[in-house]
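Work Package 3 committed the consortium to producing structural models of liganded targets before the mid-term review. Because experimental data for this complex are still outstanding, the team generated a predictive model from sequence and the ligand definition alone, so that downstream docking and mutagenesis planning could proceed in parallel. The input record is reproduced below exactly as it was submitted to the modelling pipeline, together with the SMILES string for calcium ion.
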Amino acid sequence: MKMYLSLFLLLSLATGCATNRHTARIIFDTDMAPDYDDVGALSLLHTLADSGEARILATVSSNQCPTCVPCIEVINTYCNRPDIPTGGPRKDAPNLTTWHAGARWTDYLPMHYPHQTPTTAQSEDAVAVYRRTLSKQPDHSVTIVTVGFFSNLSALLASGPDAFSPLSGTELVKKKVKQLVSMAGKVPQGREFNVYADAAASQTVFSQWPTPILLSDFDIGEQIRTGKRLVESGIKGSPIVDAFSLCLPQDDPAGRMSWDQTAVLVAVRGASPYFRTERGKMTVHPDGSNTWEASPDGPHEHLLFQMPIPQLTQIIEKLMMR
Ligand SMILES: [Ca+2]
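The resulting structure, written out as tokens with the ligand in place, is given here.
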């Protein structure tokens, strides 16, 4: 028994996995196209689901890009969870394809890997997915992690009673959601893509969201470069390796910024021991820029580095590898 315990502790240390954690109930909301760190983030989330640290309740797209939902389903299927509910945004959400025009990974993945939904426009409304999913969960138990735009969450807040719940969207979130974790914004101020892509939705969420919000802002993920080990692994038949192999040569081959992976990591495991947090208030302005005002009793928190970045990079990249 002692040997097994020692092995377990060694394994825990090797994977950066702490013991005695509860299973985090996660809804993953992604723009899955402009950048490919979303692929790394969803892979990381599946790894944490494999280890029992996370339960993936739903995976939705905040981007109308036709291949977004197919790409999400490609990864869910590859990771042996083909039945996770997926959904797409309404017609006023951004419709943005990949920045890596020469790579076309968003076309390549659905062409080469199995998935159920042909195009994002044919997917279920993400707000319906949110409402159905949240209504079935215990109170104050769900962590929503957004690594894209706030289009779905704004629409969720504005939603009314339906067949899934007699509550308004805001009431349903207040009752069922524990926290929102978002890759978003610049600290102390700036203009960040996930926020300005749908500025009106971001303004609504940051002024009206009824639960705690934890932010991984631009400067966190920018300093964590991952993907090189994935590409060098030589693994065949993996959409995750393929996405990075197609894109990374066009970026810094040393590694891609890991914005979205940081949000998923802390959504499941919490900020400590990777980061410390500062409390304050994030305000989004009409042009999509934002300001951060530190305040001990503010409604939001943002991450600050605690663990040395090379060590954190290793943990994140290992969790992305499948
Ligand atoms: Ca993203």
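Reviewers should note the following from the model. The longest helix spans residues 2-15. These observations will guide the Year 2 experiments.
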